[in-house]
Design goal:
The structure holds two protein chains of two kinds. By secondary structure, chain A is of the alpha+beta class. Chain B is mainly α. Chain B is built from two helices and no strands. Chain B is rod-shaped, with a radius of gyration of 20 Å. The relative contact order of chain B is 0.08. The chains are: A alpha+beta, B mainly alpha.
């Protein structure tokens, strides 16, 4: 009798477990919610890690071809004045890598490719974009760059962490140009003044070498632009070896 | 839905659980490799990071 009762109870339980419309609907909704959360996690976090890693590899590969196979020890801290920097001969081509951006503040071994132009599906999808017709690395005037702060590898995700005096290196075939971060500015998306040869002073003839990074602000939105200004300090010709500060990056590249 | 899947799967409980984990992993891989990139490109406009005239 007890056994039979147990079987009946089990059969009843199974019947209760059977599919109901509300039950299926609930499971579908929960699944949908989980999928949306997964997508958001992928979009703002996982994909940036993956794409950022690809951009970093691209920058490292390019750097190795510039090395021409010669491994050079870092330049001595105490070195003779390298003189005026060599400027690349021709303007960069659209969507073609011509330099690397290296910012130790963004992490040991952090490097990203710089490409010509600011096409959303070109340069900005593959790394940092260079505003056409602005100065070239080391040139007198304003070397102006743009990069994503979230998404598309988020090369400038940490732009807000820059601190006065931080090094911003531009690596080209000629060597490394060191700029020093000075200050932020926050402008509306139409604030093209920041790209002037003397930033925010249209018409003035430039005498200094400036670097300008633009990205979106606040983070995760595009309502405003964050601007990071730096000034040229010195340069390291390739034959003399990379800046001592970049030893962690050089070691990471060799490993 | 998931209950039905559990009942359809063959074998003892540990095997069913293993199959479900494998299925979930396959689904996740497909999402990350193909579905999420497609959704991103189709429904999300790239954020502007440049300054330009109106």
């Amino acid at each position: 009798m007890v056994l039979v009762d147990g079987r009946v109870a089990r059969r009843r339980a199974e019947r209760r477990k059977r599919v109901t419309l509300v039950g299926v609907l609930g499971e579908v909704l929960i699944t949908g919610g989980v999928l949306v959360l997964l997508f958001l996690g992928w979009q703002v976090w996982l994909n940036d890690i993956v794409v950022g890693g690809q951009q970093e590899n691209q920058a490292v590969e390019q750097s190795k071809t510039w090395e021409r196979g010669e491994a050079v020890a870092p330049a001595p801290v105490d070195r003779p004045d390298p003189g005026d920097p060599i400027i690349m001969a021709s303007a960069p081509q659209d969507d073609v890598q011509f330099a690397n951006l290296i910012v130790p503040r963004f992490g040991d071994g952090w490097t990203r490719p710089i490409l010509g132009g600011i096409a959303v599906n070109g340069a900005l999808a593959d790394g940092i974009g260079h505003y056409p017709d602005t100065a070239l690395p080391g040139e007198i005037g304003n070397f102006a760059l743009a990069g994503h702060r979230t998404g598309w590898g988020a090369p400038l995700a940490d732009i807000g962490n820059l601190t006065v005096g931080d090094s911003i290196y531009i690596e080209t075939e000629e060597g490394w140009y060191r700029y020093v971060f000075r200050t932020f500015a926050y402008v509306m998306p139409t604030g093209v003044d920041v790209l002037e040869a003397v930033p925010e002073n249209p018409g003035l003839a430039p005498t200094d070498r400036i670097i300008t990074l633009t990205s979106c602000n606040p983070k995760l939105t595009a309502a405003e632009r964050i601007i990071a200004y730096g000034v040229y300090d010195t340069w390291y010709p390739r034959a003399g070896g990379p800046p001592p500060e970049l030893s962690p990056l050089i070691q990471a590249m060799a490993g | 839905m998931y209950g039905a899947l559990w009942r359809v799967l063959p074998g003892p409980a540990w095997l069913r659980a293993l199959i479900m984990v494998v299925l979930a992993a396959a689904l996740l891989t497909a999402l990350v490799l193909w579905v999420f990139p497609w959704v991103n490109e189709t429904f999300f406009a790239p954020q502007d990071v440049t300054v330009e005239g109106q």
